[in-house]
Amino acid sequence: MYKLSLYKYISVLTLLYIIFTSCSDFLDRQPDDMLTEEMVWTSRTQVESYLNSIYAGIPLNDFHREDPWIGLSDEADISYTTFATYPINLGNWSPASRFYYKYPTYYKAIRSSIVLEQNIDRCSELGEDLRTRMKAEAKFLRGYYYYLLIRIYGPVVLIKDLHNTSEDWNSFSRAPFDECVEYICALMDSAEKDLPESWKETGRTNLGRPDKIVCRAVKSESLLLSASPQWNGNIEYSGFKNKDGTPLANITYDENKWRKVAEASKSVITIAENNEQADLKLYKNSDNPELFSPYKSVVHAHIAPWNSEVIFGRTNNTIRGSYMIYCSPGPNNLGGVGPTQRVVDAFYMNNGKGIEDPTSGYVETGFASNNHPNWNPNNIDEKANRNKIISEMRNGDIWGHRKGEWNMYANREPRFYANILYNKRIIPQISEDAVKRNYYNISKQQDGFGRVELYHGGTSRSSGSYTFFPRTGYLVLKGVDPRANMRDREHNFTYTNVYIRYATILLNYIEALNEFDPNNSEIEKYWNLIRERAGIPGIFEVYPEIKGNQVQQREYILRERQIELCFEGDRYLTTRRRWLAHTPDEGAEQDNRKFGEGGRMWGMDINAGNAGTNDFNFLDFYNRVSFETRVFNKSYYLFPIHESEITNNTSMVQNPWW
Predict the structure, then answer these.
(1) Across the strands, what pairs with 485?
(2) Residue 192 is inside which H or E element, if any?
(3) Mean pLDDT, residues 429-444 taken together
(4) Which terminus of the chain has fewer Cβ atoms in its 10 Å neighbourhood, N or C?
(5) Is the pLDDT confidence value at 183 over 70?
(6) What is the secondary structure of 489-517 as a DSSP string?
(7) SS3 490
(8) Could you count the other beta carbons within 10 Å of the beta carbon of residue 166?
(9) Residue 215: C-alpha distances to residues 113, 193, 467 (Å)
(10) What is the DSSP code (8-state) at residue 179?
(11) Cα–Cα distance between 404 and 417 in angstroms, integer?
């Protein structure tokens, strides 16, 4: 079925809808042998199953099969050469490639949403209120799938109704990007009218379904794409037109687009601030200042199921378990998801200053002579209290660098330790058992603590292949549960696959405000909320001279996004919508760029030294080196429309430069 073009696909499905030999996934299964049209639309159970099947097309955050944005951005490398991120980053793809080919999947869901909306009133087993709500869900899903399409492909064909097979599908051309966004917003506005303000206030059985907050959050995300430089005044898209001459991109800058982003984002914030039952706020481990822990809050914001920060998501333990295997060090895991040096360098110091700031206290080389203030603050004997130390570390009660770790990682902000596993750090996601922890160390370094060895010859490098260790010399920790026991691959907890969280909306809001009103006091207010939860001083307390300066504030706002939303897929979208992904590699001895998806990508020197003699005292590992030279052409700002779509529809134009 996926071999059909979009137009043949929708056309065939329309015909099948008419004679009701349906081709949707749900109806293909025919659980009762031969379901008739009447049986489906008069049965509450079948209608609910049909609606649930529409949700099934939403991609999972697995960074590989459906959601590759981590590995396709400048924040991480995924070392597995069998994953499609590998050839894409090397420039080995074309309109004939089927990498992350979601086009037919999303249009199939879009069509199904229309079918449900047009037929659900035939089901008398459903009350009127429930039918109304399910129609609203269908509208939301239609809009959400269009959002997923435009962030990958740009302008798309808008299918708003079921069409007869007699229609000329060659006349279905792409709609301008702004029209696509307007349609998404209209669907969200219509859907939210018949949805509760928050499912959290009505009970938690419907979490994962849209409510008013979710609809407004999707509007914020969609409008953000439209307001950003890629789609707002980008003259490089001046030739991006349909065959009839219709422009597909707005090449005239419109400041009002940013106002719309701010309005949509603030509407979410308003609910959060005025509806306590909606339980929407930045997640904290405790509202008691004496018990609040920024480190524990940041860690658990991504592992505590359906916490106060989650706006839209769904429960999925299988994907999280797989994710943790790919992010945990070997042996016995497949740890190969490596943060780049660029994102490591982006994190602030504990005083909220950047490492490039000479007053920050950052030291590039040497081993730390003292513990981080939050590591073993009572200064107990670690060797004699090994189990206690490890238990407190896994619980988040102690955190930070340890004496003897590399200075590059010393005295950094809490988010750094929550997100980055660096060489010699104690691995959180292993039980306290000394034997299991010693499994991760060479014999002379087995002390029962289980410190990760990412250097050449280290235990986590024992596979001898790029496949099972990070080429950057780091591993991603975000979303990895420190309570899990990844030595035995045990992770018996419930997790939420998060699509949108509250911090994203706050960052959307301050970014938008800065573009049309850089002196707005709410920039500081909501920016400080994020940094306060992160355990660092407010931005204007640290850098008062940037206040009101649009250019400088923009630089630090984008850096805040880079840190706060790292490894969540946002970086891929941000570098592209801000038209910064093609920032060139100037060939310097070290990478001083803040942006740029092409050229050299950097990490630690994982190949230095002699594998038989290296240990934690080996210094050459800590040299910055390029692990890969990537290719990024301007065509890569958008995925190509597959060549079959171009062939089967004479009105379809390809994305620029493909």
Answers:
(1) 490
(2) helix 177-192
(3) 96
(4) N
(5) yes
(6) TB--S--EEEEEEHHHHHHHHHHHHHHH-
(7) strand
(8) 8
(9) 16, 10, 40
(10) H
(11) 16
Burial-class residue 467 by CB neighbours within 10 Å (0-12, 13-18, 19+): middle
Please tell me the predicted confidence (pLDDT) of residue 61.
74
CB atoms within 10 A of CB 527: 24
Is 395 within 8 Å of 368 (Cβ atoms)?
no
Average pLDDT over residues 149-165: 91
pLDDT at res. 177 = 98
Token pair in block for residue 554:
């923009």
Distance CA 249, CA 320 (A): 37
The whole-angstrom separation of Cα 3 and Cα 357 is 54
Read off the tokens for 257: 């687009």
Helix-, strand-, coil-residue percentages of the chain, each rounded to 5: 40, 10, 50
Query: Domains along the chain?
Result: 6-257+310-316 (1.25.40.390)
Q: Are 158 and 183 in contact (CB under 8 A)?
A: yes
At residue 491, the pLDDT reads 87
Kind plus residue range of the DSSP H or E element containing 630: strand 624-630
CB atoms within 10 A of CB 141: 25
Q: CB 290: neighbour CB atoms within 10 A?
A: 5
Q: Given a cut of 50, is residue 155 above it in pLDDT?
A: yes
pLDDT digits (tens, 9 = 90+) for 575-605: 999 999 999 999 999 888 999 999 999 999 9
* Integer Cα distance of 463 and 456 in angstroms: 11
Q: Name which of 480, 464, 539 is nearest 337 in CA terms.
A: 480
Preceding peptide of 331 cis, ω within 30°: yes
**Phi, psi for 535 (deg, rounded to 5):** 85, 25
Fill in the amino acid letter for 80. Y
φ, ψ (nearest 5 deg) of residue 518: -65, -15
Residue 339 has, within 13 A of its CA and on its CB side, a CA count of 27
How far does the chain reach from its first CA to its final CA, in angstroms?
26
Residues 401 and 365: their CA atoms lie apart, in Å, by 14
Please give the single-letter amino acid code of residue 105: T
CB 562 within 8 A of CB 530: no
pLDDT at res. 36: 67
How would DSSP label each residue in 286-330?
-SSTTT--HHHHHHHTTTSTT-TTEEEEEE-HHHHHHHHHHHSPS
DSSP 205: T
Taking the C-alpha atoms of residue 477 and residue 194, their distance in angstroms, rounded to an integer, is 39
Report the predicted TM-score, pTM, of the whole model to 2 decimal places: 0.94
Only one residue has tokens 């016995």, namely 332
Nearest 5 degrees, angle CA 185-CA 189-CA 190? 120
**Which residue bears the tokens 């090449």?**
251
Helical segments of 69-165, H only = 85-89, 103-119, 128-153
Task: For residue 475, list its beta bridge partners.
Answer: 421
Q: What is the pLDDT of residue 466?
A: 57
